[in-house]
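Before the break, one more example. Copy the sequence into your notebook; we will annotate it together after we see the structure.
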Amino acid sequence: MTGLLGRSRRLLGPFALAVTAAWLCGCGKADEDKRPGSAEQFSLKDYLCTITPAECHRKALQSLYLAPPDAIYETTLGGKAFHIPMGYIGEIQVMSSGELRDQELFLNALGPEMQPRSTENIREFIRNGQRPALVRFNVMSVKSVGSLPWWEGTVDEAVKDHIERLTARKRYPDKYGLQHWGVDYARARFAKPCEFEGEMQQCGMERQDDLYVPIDVHGGARYMKCASWLYLKTNSVDKELAMSLEEREVYYQSDEYKKRGGWHMNINPHCNHYFYHEHLNARVRLSYHLSLLPHWQQMEERTRALLDAALSAASAAQMVKPPR
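Here is what the structure looks like once it is written out:
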């Protein structure tokens, strides 16, 4: 992995900056530069130590969270050069061992707009407790298997296997442009999703993730495995996402929120959204809160645009690099 922990390139060249800006536009005004060692930097570091006291003194994490707004993380993926704004880099990426280099990339953003981390929204990324707007994504380079690409050889198999192994499987009404397969709880009440702590023996042993597949057959090569739709019936995350950042901070400290009971999955139901990126020959997995599923197309399109921009930025930087 080259340029470990995000070498800051302030002069990427006009084309590289244009490519990156094309993705970042609409994500909010860029933060003003803060000089290393300035009061603003120390304030942010102190805040990190308040939130994550056991981790904040690690140099890798400081380099990640205290990086200037224009810092670029340089790496390779499947042998292809990759330059991406530091605001998208996840903790796992900078803490990972050399075994993952060139094979996987760990990123995160705030969806469905897929905004990068900044000084204004950093609490959404590092808060102890709920982070319903956070989207984590993993990009994994893959190889072809025989005459078929790896993806074509696995997606159909994964979808069919999941449907076949569902307890009392049921085809629910289509939604969000997706087929919806899940458990028929009227026929299998013993398989109900867990709502409260201590229920795992009664409800946690069956395959319960719902499956979503595009209705349009030409929209294949993607699918989502999500926690049961029943979790949204008692979930307050839509209200939380409608709040401002400041309002959410207050709400998560309130007695109303602290008194809420329930099992973790009931409070934070997940979706794992898989698709294939042709230019990278890579599998991408987006992980997000179930309430964000209606925006799956927007999140996938923005993720593709981000990855394409990272490839283009690296190519542009190589073109403008002066000869040795």
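The longest strand covers residues 134-141. Residues 296-320 form the longest helix (25 residues). Try to locate both features in your own notes.
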